[in-house]
Specification:
The N and C termini lie far apart (47 Å). The protein is globular and about 70 Å long. The strands form two sheets. The chain has a six-stranded mixed sheet, with helices on one face. A five-stranded mixed sheet has the order 5-6-7-8-9, with helices on one face. It has 357 residues and is α+β, with helices and mostly antiparallel strands. The protein folds into two domains: 81 residues; 248 residues, Deoxyribonuclease I, Chain A. The protein contains nine helices and eleven strands.
Length: 357
């Protein structure tokens, strides 16, 4: 029995490491890119099991040990940037008193069927953000969140019953607010100009593309295309830009990596932690799906995963300081020709896939 368990652990760890290397956007390949941390610990457990119970010089057992060690190295390499051992991509802001150049955001996938409306309102009240972004909000949620309207006079509601509704609430002035359906006719995104208290303007993009899971989409083409389309549009902005929402993609995926290469935007989690937001009810299986990327005009005041609100996602809170001169301290990576080609191909595949659906 022990040998069977060891074999299963090894098989799971190796398969979960090799399958993401397959150049396919099918859901059953993409899904293995999510549990990197879980795969790391499974490999560590299997290697420990081997060293305690089966440590011999037999070539087959040595081979198992080498394979598991390689799995651990690969998964640790993927995970390391999101630990305190990684290099911070966003510098810490120096802030004191009331700074008109700061902006705070509360991002929450509420889970459309969740009835804990008061818990969401309570968390928002506690964090007192400048901007609230909700996803999976339908008409019922819009009505239940009506108390927010007193303190958040600038709003963009997009109530939908298909799990892809979204709402933007702001106490900062919003202008040129647009609701767009970039790839799929029932999946919205929002673009808005936001005026900080200092009078400076920044641009906000909100996304929530469809995930590559069996009951939603057979592959990740639509999701990947929308993320890259937003990235290519956002990089044209001259000032500060924030892209936030439920990406339905993990921070270390190839497409998220491409998004960062296309935009040059920074990830404030790097060097600070995973901030796993999904699944709130299953501690063993959690990964970061809700993201906040931003241009190098911002430094970080605070980032925090918010407590459970009854959803399958934890909300995220982030407080940023807009410092235009920070762009000289936090260098953006400029996309090269290969990056541009890959981005265009990703968009083309997504649009083609959507037109066939």
């Amino acid at each position: 029995m022990g040998l069977i368990i060891f074999g299963l652990l090894t098989l799971i760890a190796v398969a979960a490491t090799l399958i993401p290397l397959i150049p396919s956007k099918r859901w059953y390949v993409q899904i293995f890119d999510y549990p990197r941390l879980q795969t790391f610990f499974i490999a560590v457990l299997a290697l420990g099991w081997y060293l305690i119970f089966y440590c011999t010089t037999s070539w087959i057992y040595v081979a198992f040990a080498v394979i598991l060690s390689l799995v651990i190295i690969v998964q640790a390499y993927k995970a390391a940037p999101y630990t305190p051992f990684g290099k911070k991509q966003v510098l810490q802001a120096d802030i004191s008193g009331n700074d008109g150049n700061t902006v705070s955001l509360f991002i929450c996938n509420v889970l459309q069927t969740n009835k804990n409306y008061e818990k969401v309102l309570e968390r928002i009240k506690r964090y007192d953000p400048d901007i609230i972004i909700t996803t999976e909000t339908n008409t019922e949620w819009q009505n239940r969140l009506k108390p927010l309207e007193e303190n958040y006079p600038y709003r963009q509601p997009v109530p939908l019953e298909n799990l892809y509704g979204m709402h933007l609430y702001s106490r900062l002035i919003l202008e040129k607010v647009e609701v767009r359906y970039l790839v799929e006719s029932d999946i919205p995104s929002i673009r808005a100009n936001v005026q900080l208290q200092s009078g400076e303007w920044i641009t906000l993009f909100i996304v929530h593309p469809r995930p590559p899971v069996p009951n939603e989409s057979k592959d990740s083409k639509d999701r990947d295309a929308e993320i890259i389309m937003v990235g290519k549009e956002a990089r044209k902005e001259e000032g500060g830009v924030i892209v936030a929402g439920d990406f339905n993609d993990v921070a270390w995926s190839e497409n998220t990596k491409l998004f960062q290469q296309v935009t040059g935007y920074l990830d404030p989690r790097k060097g600070r932690g995973f901030f796993n937001t999904y699944h709130a009810d299953v501690p063993v299986f959690r990964w970061p799906l809700d993201h906040i990327f931003h241009s190098n005009h911002f430094k970080l005041v605070k980032i925090e995963r918010v407590g459970n609100v009854g959803s399958d996602h934890f909300p995220m809170f982030i407080h940023l300081k807009y410092e235009p001169e920070a762009q000289y301290e936090q260098k953006e990576v400029k996309p090269d020709a290969d990056t541009e080609k890959e981005a265009e191909e990703t968009i083309r595949e997504g649009k083609s896939n959507s037109s066939e659906a």
